[in-house]
Predict the structure.
Amino acid sequence: MASVRALESSGKKVILIDLSRAELDEMVRVLREAKGMIRSEPPGSVLTLTDLTGAHPTPAITRQMKEFVRDNGPFVKAGAVVGLAALMRPIYDAVMLFSNRSISGFTTREEALQWLLSR
């Protein structure tokens, strides 16, 4: 089930946005909740880790992700994503182009988390 939660490690907080195997309605709910968490922090301070494992691209999901990434940009210090299977790569590319942001891709959550904690 899709969810969002804060992880604490090495004195840093990372917001984990788990969209793995999520359908559109779950994604919308989780992205709305994540947006509130992100915007409750000071600008330029948030570390995010998004898991897209098993998510299926649709135009509606692409639209939701574009808006989410663009709107939260001022609050995010660094972002990482896992689960970029071939089907999700076009969405990732479109979101990066639209939002003018760079979110690093990783194979596992652990790799992504370690990278984020080094920021």
